[in-house]
Amino acid sequence: MKITHLLIGLLLLNFMNLQAQEVVSKRDTLKEIIITSTRIELPFKKDSRTMTIINAETIQNSAATNVADLLQQVAGVDIRRRGTGGAQADLYIRGGGFDQTLLLIDGIKMDDAQTGHHTLNAALPIEVIERIEIIKGPAARVFGQNAFTGAINIVTKKQLKNPVAINAETGSFGQTNASATIGKVNSNSEFIAHIGALTSDGYRNNSDYNNYNYFLKGTFNKNKQPIEMIATFFDKKFGAENFYTTNPTFNEYEETQNSLVGFSTTFQNEKFKIKPRVYWRRGQDIFLLRRNNPAFYRNLHITNKMGVETNASYTSNLGITGFGVDVSRVSISSNNLGEHHRIMANVFLEHRFQFFDNQLDITPGVAITYFSDFKFHAFPGIDVGYQLSESIKIYGNLGTTYRIPTYTDLFYRDPVTIGNPDLQPEEAFSQEIGLKFNRGNFSGSMAFFNRDATNLIDYIRPTSLESVFTATNIVEVVTKGFEFDANYTFKISEFYQKLTFGYSFLDDNIFNKNENLSRYSLNTLRHHFTTRFSSKFFKNLTQNIIYKHAERTTGQSYNVWDASIVLTLSEIDFTFTANNIFDSDYIESGFVPMPGSNVLFGMRFKM
Questions:
Q1: Which DSSP string do the residues of 496-556 spell out, in sequence order?
Q2: How far, in Å, are 58, 67, 343, 349, 428 from residue 400 at the CA level?
Q3: 3-state secondary structure of 216
Q4: In whole angstroms, how large is the CA radius of gyration of the chain?
Q5: Within 10 A of 41 (CB to CB), how many other CB atoms are there?
Q6: What tens digit of pLDDT does each residue of 259-288 get?
Q7: SS (H, E, C) 238-304
Q8: What kind and span of H or E run contains 7?
């Protein structure tokens, strides 16, 4: 923990030495962002949880072509990729599993009853994203059971800065990326449409991909009762060489589809705000163990989730009350997992109290959930924050969280892996204490957290290295950690420069289990450091340098440098992106080596 102590000292030193400087307007806009993923909507700086916001400007300067690559730049978020272009990647927060993090699109829960392995298949193209809200820590009280270790809400743009944007890129491994985004605003309606394709020949044998994405968002009846519609469809086809096996004779292949249709509206007066929503999410996954011989081994899974949801808030002299109801039906049809369905119902209630001239805020709440196959469960929790000054806020929270097994956990079967229909739900009690600092052109936050979990689900070889991996409830897992984030904006000549950095430390203790026989639990990021320097020294030229250091509990350690340059000439941006500049040799997940040095050239046309 020496590194932790050093970082704390550095932050405190900044607190003591930082003098009042020119307030940067870009920093202020971030502080005033309203967090829309919760029922009690608050400005970012007033929330009493650990949150990170990635805004549109940061996305544009990130050197990332997809959400998976973008999230890798956030300390405490572990993206384990199997290749490039976002073809396949798993999402982890604070050491949890990929089934324990919830993804939302404009507040719509995108959980997959088959497996959280498909979570990022629903991630949107970055061209239509306004911002990404990352909520770390237990969020079941706010979102329900899948937000075990955190939640990520992707907020889409309402209007485009430019009515037409065309993007084309080409580079290493035969990469070809192309997209078109258009927007139209009428007197009583508006819409955004996007179509994109990301293709590659692959950087190693059988790692080619063809990914297509389609997005449509519209607002109708604007002058009376606005109705918002969102529709997405993502189609991915990719070689999956050794994604899940080490057998050199296999030639794995996978196809996934993910779609969403949702409608929502808002009723509002001075005290009440009610947001009803209906939605349908569909997922499909085809996996072949031998690409050119489907009869050898083939898995086909189709999942559907249909839901209706209403969230509301009421403001009174006693504070703000948030409440909501979410009812959904999920189903799966699979040649491996069988035919199953469940009904889920969630009721949410929370209230934000404020005392001492609004310096102290206390928000207790509870979520009560019913599953037709796992019955009733409740998740109570409480957030507390105290504004020490205009610049400094301390906060803490306690909460219980819960996750029922996926259908893969329960019923999957192949020659080396077997599910377990007798699995119990995962449970955890989490605690956190943190501090936020915002002053002009510097902002920072730190948090210490602890998670006491029982019945976590992992795949264990019960007796020896030769036995079959079996889904098992681990008796007890204690996860302790520390996170630190900071942003500093300064001016050189007439141009603003921005430096961001983050660090996270995790310590997992697994009791009563042979650590060598666990498939997933022991591959967390023990140390994770990220930094990005976005600079501008000439009017039309912007540079970005991104550094990532990772040390996993398995002992693997690696450093990766990425960079990008954007040259703006009138309505055209010319881009150059270099990834893994120093050709680092590393693996993020399973047995798949990540690509070496590679480049991407692009052009963005805006009008």
A1: EEEEEEEEEEEEEEEESS-GGGBSSTT--EEEEEEEEEEEEEETTEEEEEEEEEEEETTS-
A2: 33, 29, 22, 15, 6
A3: strand
A4: 23
A5: 16
A6: 999 999 999 998 999 999 999 999 999 999
A7: EECCCCCCCCCCCECEEEEEEEEEEEEECEECCCEEEEEEEEEEEEEEEEECECCCCCCCEEEEEEE
A8: helix 2-17
Residue 24 has what pLDDT?
Answer: 37
pLDDT at residue 231 in the model = 97
Residues listed for the chain: 607
All domains of the chain, ordered by start, with CATH? 2-606 (2.40.170.20)
Which residue, chain included where needed, has tokens 């992707």? 154
Say whether 143 sits in a helix, a strand or coil. helix
Q: What is the reported pLDDT for 511?
A: 54
Token duo for residue 576: 């150059």
Token digits for 260? Answer: 């969403």
3-state secondary structure (DSSP) of residue 30 = helix
* pLDDT tens-place string over residues 354-386: 999 999 999 999 999 999 998 888 889 999 999
Q: Under a CB-based contact definition with an 8 Å cutoff, are residues 327 and 344 in contact?
A: yes
Which of 335-349, 365-379, 497-511 holds the top average pLDDT? 335-349
The single-letter DSSP state of residue 24 is: P
Bridging pattern class, strands 417-418 and 469-492: parallel
- CA 529, distance to chain mean position in Å, is 18
Average pLDDT over residues 294-298: 93
Residues ≥6 apart with Cβ < 8 Å to 488? 441, 442, 498, 499, 500
Give 31-80 as a DSSP string.
HT-EE-SSSS-EEGGG--SEEEEEEHHHHHTS--SSHHHHHTTSTTEEEE
Residue 223 has pLDDT above 60, yes or no: yes
Other C-beta atoms lying within 10 Å of the C-beta of residue 220: 17
Check: CB of residue 444 under 8 Å from CB of residue 8. no
Which residues contact residue 118 at a Cβ distance below 8 angstroms, ignoring those fewer than 6 apart? Answer: 112, 256, 258, 283, 285
Torsion 134-138-143-146 (CA) sign: positive
Instruction: Kindly state the tokens that stand for 115.
Output: 């497996």
Q: What is the mean pLDDT of residues 236-240?
A: 95
Q: Which helix (H) or strand (E) holds 479?
A: strand 469-492
Nearest residue to 243 via CA among 253, 255, 229: 253
Give, for 130, the enclosing helix (H) or strand (E): strand 129-136
